[in-house]
């Protein structure tokens, strides 16, 4: 499968369904969109309108896969103390940053994270039943510094954008742990 460079052709999609049961801070769906999924294709002015039909397909996680599409997983993880991390790793500082290789940018990123609750009375851990105060941001480099392309506080931690250069993991609380098990990008 051949993907067009983002400067030549890019697309995005959004779903206008009500998500207030999952994300209480979002009280209403987008009022400017009719119900359903909306796809927008942005061709470069250099090529004008597409001369042939565009084929749109949907995929969510890495496990869905697409024939002929190769996922990459090379990323350099650095914790808040400047130490390099190797997957899988536990998030032990409030911020962990993932850098894509120099000169490369992603258009799709997925971070696989497991959560555990730290049980103080027994000193052990158990699987988390809910996701704690945790956020992952996808960022792009601009002349004025990094800007957020997307942020998620709950699984799945999947991001799309015309240019993703950096992933930032933020832990906002105590009493839980997070382990980054995998990372893939296109």
Tell me the series of helices and strands, N- to C-terminal: EEEEEEEEEEEEE
Segments where pLDDT lies below 50 for 5+ residues?
A: none
Beta percentage is over 45%
Classification by helices and strands: mainly beta
Shape annotation: globular
User: Overall mean pLDDT score?
Assistant: 75
Main sheet attributes: strand count, strand direction, barrel closure: 6 strands, antiparallel
Distance from N terminus to C terminus (CA atoms, Å) equals: 12 Å
Computed over alpha carbons, the radius of gyration is 19 Å
Would you kindly provide a written description of the structure presented here, covering whatever features stand out?
With 186 residues, this protein is mainly β. 0% of the residues lie in helices and 45% in strands. The protein contains no helices and 13 strands. Strands 4-3-6-12-9-10 form a six-stranded antiparallel sheet, with no helix packed on it. Strands 5, 7, 8, 11 and 13 form a five-stranded antiparallel sheet that branches. A two-stranded antiparallel sheet has the order 1-2. The chain is globular. The mean pLDDT is 75.
């Amino acid at each position: 499968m051949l993907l067009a460079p983002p400067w030549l052709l890019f697309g995005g999609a959004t779903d206008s369904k009500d998500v207030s049961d999952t994300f209480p801070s979002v009280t209403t769906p987008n009022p400017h969109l009719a119900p359903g999924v909306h796809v927008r294709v942005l061709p470069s002015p250099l090529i004008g309108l597409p001369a042939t039909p565009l084929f749109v397909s949907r995929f969510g996680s890495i496990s869905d896969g697409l024939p002929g599409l190769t996922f990459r997983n090379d990323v350099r993880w650095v914790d808040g103390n400047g130490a390099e991390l190797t997957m899988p790793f536990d998030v032990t500082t409030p911020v962990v940053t993932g850098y894509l290789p120099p000169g490369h940018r992603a258009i799709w990123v997925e971070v696989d994270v497991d959560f555990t609750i730290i049980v103080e009375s027994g000193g052990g851990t158990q699987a988390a039943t809910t996701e704690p105060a945790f956020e992952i941001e996808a960022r792009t480099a601009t002349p004025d510094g990094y800007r957020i392309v997307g942020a998620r506080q709950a699984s799945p931690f999947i991001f799309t954008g015309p240019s993703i250069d950096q992933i930032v993991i933020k832990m906002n609380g105590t009493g839980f742990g997070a382990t980054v098990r995998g990372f893939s990008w296109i």
